[in-house]
Each structure stands twice: as C-alpha cells, then as structure tokens.
Specification:
The structure is a homodimer of 324-residue chains. By secondary structure, the first copy, chain A, is an alpha/beta fold. Chain A has three domains: 5-48, 434 Repressor (Amino-terminal Domain); 62-160 and 291-314, Response regulator (Rossmann fold, 3-Layer(aba) Sandwich), CATH 3.40.50.2300; 162-287, Rossmann fold (3-Layer(aba) Sandwich). Chain A contains twelve helices and twelve strands. In chain A, helix 1 (5-12) packs across helix 2 (16-24), helix 2 packs across helix 3 and helix 8 (162-175) packs parallel to helix 9. The termini of chain A are far apart. The interface between A and B is large, with 57 and 57 residues. The structure holds a DNA duplex (30 and 30 nucleotides).
Chain lengths: 324, 324
DNA sequence: CCTTGCGTTGAGAGCGCTCTCACCGGTGTG
DNA sequence: CACACCGGTGAGAGCGCTCTCAACGCAAGG
C-alpha cells in the first residue's frame, strides 16, 4: 500500500542506493538526480519506514515513557501527560519520538521484557517504578533507561525533592503556630511515599511533637477519607499536610462540610501546585512540583547517554496562599 | 547486545526456522525440541523484535493516539491520559500496544506523514483533529484511522453528544427559572466548540432569550477571565453554562470572590464531570463525558476494521449537584 | 519390495531499509 | 601515454524476523 524506497527509485529512474542517499542526505549526488528523486518521493507520498531503518542502523527512534502500575484514578491531575509532553519536546530536538506505555503492576516485567527486544525503542523513562520492577529489569535495557522516582544500580533517578519539601512545609506550619500536625501520605506501595514520611517524622520528633500519619491514595476521594480518619483519631489536630493537592482539596471539602474553619481551626497544605490549587476557597497553600524540568532532564539523560549521578533531586518551592 | 532468534536457535541446536516455529507457536515441533528452544530463549533472555516481525508480516503492532495541537494547559484534567488508558486496554486484548503521539498544530501533517510510513503502527486514533489536518491526511492512513471529534470521508468519528448535553443543560437551567443564560465556550480553533454553540443558540432563540456567548480555553484560568467578561457585559446574567468543569470552577471562584451567591444569584453548570467537580463549594452541576467508552469504541473500530457509521455520538448525562 | 503419508526439520527468500564497496567515465598529473 | 583521482552511481549484503517449500526418516499399506 504505502510506497517504498524501491518505488521512488524506480519512478526517478535511479537505483535504490541513490534514492536512499538523496533522501537520507548523506552521500554525493548530482543536482539533477537529487531533484528527480525528491520529486518522485513527493509525488508518491513516500515516507521512509523508521522501523525498517532501525533494523539496519540498530538505533531506535522512539523513547518510551513507561508508567508503572498507576491506576488513572490515582491521579486526579494530568501528571503523566506533563511527563510525556516534556519528553516529547526533548525527543523532538533529537529527532526521536516519545511513546507512552502503561505497565499494569502485575505484567510490568513482561511488558518491559518485550520493550527490551524492540529495536524501534532507543530508551525508556520509568515513572513510578518499584524495586520489584527494577530488580526484574532486562539486562539489555540497562544504560538506556532512567527513572523518575527511585533509582537502581545503572538506572539514574530523577525526582522532586519531596523530603525537602516536606521538611519545609512542616517548618512553615510550625512557624505559624501549629503543633498537632497530621500528614496524609501516598499509598504504601508507591515508592514516592517513603521519603516524605521520613522527613515528616524526623521533623516532628525533633520538635517533640506527636506523629500522626494516615495513608491516602493521591485522589480527592482518598483525601476525604483520610481527613475523616484524622478527625476521628485525633480531634485536636490543628494542621494537615497532604502529599498531593488532590488529597488536600478533598480534606478541605470535609472540613468545610463539618463547619471547621480553614485555616482558622485547621490549616491544610498540599503538594504539586496543580491548577485547581488556587481556585478553591480557601486557595491552597502547597509546594511546587517541577514535573517538566524533571522529565526533560530524564529524557535528556537517556538520549545523551552521558554519565549521570545516581540520584538527582529537584527543589520544590512553597507557595503560600490562604489554607495554611 | 540483545539476543536474536539466531542466537536462541544456535543455543538450542536447531535452525532459525524451527526456533521461530516453536516460539511463535504455529508449526509442528517435537516435545523435546520445543523444550530445548524454550529453555534457550529463557536462558538468554530473548525477546522477539516486534519491529522486525512487523516488517515481514506487514502488520503493525501499535495503535497510536495522535493528539492534535493541544497545549497541556488547555486541559486541566487528565483527558488524554484517559483516552490512552482506554485505548491501551482495548489494544491489549488484541496483542497491540498503544502509543501517545503529540502533534503540534504546525507540524501535524508532517508527523502524520511520518506515521503513515511507519510499519510498526497498525492504526491511529486522532484526538481533537481539525479539518485542515484531516484534509492533509496521508492516503495510506485512510481505513486505519478514526477520530475522536470531527470526522471525514473515510475517517469515522466518535464523540460525546455535546450538542445534546448542551440542550439538556439549557433546558434544566430554564426549568429552574433562569432566563439570562450565558455560555462560556471552548476556543474557536477547536472543532469541538461549534456544536455546543449551535445547540445553545437554537435553544435560546427558540425560547426567545438573549444569546450571550463568551469564548474560553477549557482551563480554570480561562473560565475566570470569561466570567469576568460576562459580568462586565451582561451584569444581569442569572446562569452560566461553561463547556468544561475547569472553566466552571474558575467562574465560581470569580463569583465567590465578588460575593455573588452560587447558585442563589447566578447558577453555574459545567461539562465533563471531572473528579474535582464534586469537591468544590458549591458542588458543581455538570454533564458526564464518557471518555473511556468513546476511546474504547474508537480503538475497537480501527482494530476490528469493520465498517463504522461516519458519526457515532455518545450520550451525556446531567449530574445535578448544588451549583445549578 | 516400493509407495504413500505423516511428523518433523532446515534452507532460503524476502520485508524496507542503510551502507560498504566496486565500478564508470572524465579530468589532472608525471 | 600511463597513472592516480574523483564525483557520481549501482550491486549486493545484511539487520531480525516469518513463512513457504522441499527434504528427511519412518511407519503403515499395497
């Protein structure tokens, strides 16, 4: 159906080699030949098959953003879209396309194995990957794979400094007089959950304050449930730090429905600085998440193939609004 | 680097043909041979190269979700994620992977042309495509491409019945006593903008009510600006229908900051029923957008290659909450 | 004894492409 | 006149895979 290089060559009255040389723009060719080949290609609507090309050159032509085990409900904001977009932008500068690949938790190793054999992919950016997945990472993928989240020997990690952000937020809450600060975390199975918990615990223990941890799931509904739980277990809580804005927004909804003042009675802070953070009442105090910067760095790392430090943490900044 | 079928065959002491037959599971082979080949494949960590396979079979192995010209800021909700996810799920049932491809407005024809030549792709689902893009659609893509949004000869269209949803919403607003109903639309360049406008105008004219149209951009910030505009031009407006929840939420933020009661003074309705719609105060009245159903149908259509009606509209349902 | 049929196997072509290499005719040098 | 050289060109190998086809050994049937 689609015309091949052979078709173009025939139409231009030259050999396949010459056509390839002209279209690929690498070898010598007379102006006349050049012209004829190009004209034929346009006339036939020829587009080279990158898959066939990859087969012979041994170089892939697409970068895969592999998202591990994320139920879309887990994310009430377009996090993955942002990662793919940033990756695509970087890839475009290298003539490389970006593809999204969802890896259901249970079949992640299988899919990754298939990916490893695919000569059309030149590398991958793992998102939200777990230790189990990294452990099973195909050997042939090492060196052309990076991770947004936790790292692994041979797999450099890029992530927001959510530990630092947590410390800063707790500090802010403390400075504004809060002493009974609860934290709504991500789900335990997600690797990005641990560091904020550690930072929170360290800060609370250092200040001699009680540790109040409740697991969430990064959704507004989850934040709602978690807030209910906090209220139930520790009624005297005066501040809540949720590790995602969606959860914080859910928490605020609960508080408002109970007639509890925010931030008067309970301060609420989030994380991510999603668009809706500033549109609620009260506007959400939160910490930025430089997704694009992180994804761009990750993509660049696999495309450039240059040495990368095992872990790169990107600073998050506090955004002071009304809720805390 | 990565082992090839040849390597496996050699390790198992058989020919490449036999190895292919065993691993592909199509031809006869003695139990002993079968065993040896499989063992060798596992031991070497072999994964077949789908690109090479596609080259000979002529069948692609991935379905591309091609999103035309959408700035991520345009969407404050994970619409694209949802489409990709649904597509991936359908694809998985056919052993076909899904890839996301962003098409910047200006380079859409070029990228589509490249896509057409790529033997690794078996088809595409166009999202938010425009007439200009469809006009330039490569011939070899016709028959294996569908559109979520507007259609084209040979390109069946799947979309939510946003015209019907608009009529229903206006009717609801009218029934609850509203008479000066303004509408915040999508950006003019997006093809999904027109039908709701037509439906709104028809309803208003039929009821002898004034038409009050303001363009938005599907973001919360855009909704904010549009609401300001409405207030400025038609201070007596008593209802606003925004064609996305994000815009409706932005509109509500403006009204609240002005001390205007919602829905007391002005009713606000949205479209999409995103997660945050129910978390604001007041909870947003809106219309559902069955993205997954639509995407699944679109993906199935290209994978099944069966005849499809030129246009399939999926019903939207009104969700009555507090804001209207 | 030869034929037929069957289960099993490997040789080989070829998918669309890149790229090395050899070739060809024309020009410049010794 | 022989030689090297050079821009321009095509033949052909081969990337990893699938799949057709022929060949092989062996049992059953005539």
């Amino acid at each position: 159906m689609a015309p091949t290089l052979e078709d173009v060559a025939r139409a231009a009255g030259v050999s396949r080699s010459t056509a390839s040389r002209v279209l690929g723009g690498y070898g010598p060719a007379s102006p006349d030949t050049r012209e004829r080949v190009r004209a034929a290609a346009t006339r036939l609507g020829y587009a080279p098959d990158p898959a066939a090309r990859a087969l012979v050159t041994g170089k892939g032509y697409r970068l895969v953003v592999a998202v591990v085990g994320l139920d879309p409900a887990v994310l009430d904001d377009p996090y993955v879209d942002r990662v793919v977009r940033a990756t695509a932008e970087v890839g475009a500068r290298y003539g490389i396309g970006a593809s999204l690949q969802w890896l259901p938790m249970d079949s992640a190793p299988t899919v990754l194995h298939r990916l490893a054999g695919d000569r059309s992919v030149c590398g991958a950016v793992l998102v939200n990957t777990t230790e189990a997945v990294l452990r099973a990472l195909p050997r042939s993928l090492i060196g052309r794979v990076v991770s947004i989240g936790i790292g692994w020997p041979g797999v450099p990690s890029f992530d927001v400094d959510n530990g630092g952000a947590t410390s800063a937020m707790i500090q802010h809450l403390y400075a504004s007089g809060r002493r009974r600060i609860a934290m709504v975390t991500g789900p335990a199975w997600m690797p990005c959950t641990q560091r904020p918990i550690d930072a929170y615990q360290a800060a609370m223990v250092a200040a001699g304050l009680p540790v109040r941890l409740v697991p969430g799931d990064f959704t507004a509904a989850g934040g709602r449930a978690a807030m209910l739980d906090v209220l139930d277990r520790w009624p005297d809580t005066d501040a809540v730090f949720a590790t995602s804005d969606a959860m914080a927004l859910g928490a605020i909804a609960v508080l408002r429905s109970r007639g509890i003042e925010v931030p008067g009675d309970i301060a609420v802070a989030g994380f991510d600085d999603i668009p809706f953070a500033s549109y609620g009442v009260p506007a959400l105090t939160t910490a930025t998440h430089p997704v694009e910067r992180i994804a761009a760095a990750a993509a660049t790392a696999v495309l450039e193939q240059t040495w990368m430090p095992p872990v790169t943490a990107y600073p998050s900044e506090l955004v002071y609004r009304e809720s805390a």
